[in-house]
Amino acid sequence: MDNKLKIYLAIIYSIFLITLIVFAFKFGLKIDLINFLFFTIIGVLISNFSMFFNSMTEISTSMNLPIIIPTFFLFNPFWVGIIAAIGTVGVKFKKKRFIWYKFLFNRANFFLASAFGAWTFKISRFYLDGNNFPFLSVLLAVLVYFFINNTLVYIVINLSSENVNKFSLFNYFRELSKNLIVSYFLGLILLASFIYFGKLFFSLIIILLFIIKDFFYSRLQQMNSYTQIIESFLKVIDSKDHYTEGHCERVANYTYHLCNEMNLSRAKSERIISIAKIHDIGKIYVDDDILRSSKKLSNQEYSEIQEHTKYGYELLKDIDILNNDLDIMLYHHERWDGRGYPVGIEGENIPMGARILAVCDSLDVMITGRSYKPPMTKEEIIEEFKECSGKQFDPELTEKIIKLIKKGFFDDGFKNKEKIREIELSYN
Known about the structure:
The chain is an all-alpha fold. Helix content is 71%, strand content 1%.
């Protein structure tokens, strides 16, 4: 252990011991034993069996703080600190080496953060809330708890190893603040349930939160499975058609920007982007000689290529987490004027996702070219989209994609293509 870390831990232990003694004398040892045991046991159970997951980020939200918030109201700062220190003890079911200084630091950290948070609540309640429900005093107490708890941890992280990625205190707190908001409102719900309805209703609320947690966690797992399926199919597509390797990923990237430009909801955008990543999966059923042909395709060969949208749809339609969005894949070669395939629908009858995918799919072909079609310049692509607006493509989407091209969103694609051209010319 680094000497700086040893000194820091020694300071924290000393502050913990001094605060423990001072608060015991200042606030007294009188205690409501039933409520003390109730919250301590609830804390231990919560600490060992549950964790809230934020599906929009990788940061998990612990239930420790929401359980501690009601104790601000019920106990003096000394006993709040004791409940927090004991209630956050993790029971190790797997045999692991007991690290005493880490255990002691965690107990000190939770005691100090909770005790000073409770003290803040005690001082501010009369001035901020009076006889009303303590919204503001709880908020102030939570902020004190949050600052002490996470500052102490931040310092440990940055002292513990030379290899730890260093990050600013501001960025650290900015990320954690997302969880602070959730914890604050959950704590208010638990406090209100205990004050107005008692222990039984309080316990039922916790059970309900467990159920909600399990629902969101299952959704998170489903999203991970969805992503894994998409990535697996993406590898299959690239291995099938080496000439267009990376095509689906590039189209997905263009789709991301176009969805943003259209101000689509995050959920809808993600579904369209996911389908964009595998939109050519049906090509695994198309003959390799046709896919890799450098000659102009015959009518029969072109008809076979056109079947890839149907092949892809049929392949994936029985996968529940995909089948609601497969019309995007099925219709991404339909045209605004109704002259596309496989059905020949037109205009707004074509699903929005399919219209977006059609634009982005064509953009990649224009930028990268094909064996039978050379790549186009930025200016040529803009003119092509203008020419095809209202014919092949949705006019609104055409306007948006031209706007993105002019702003330089896809310049990397053009630069990469220029490098490839230079390499090809140097070998000729």
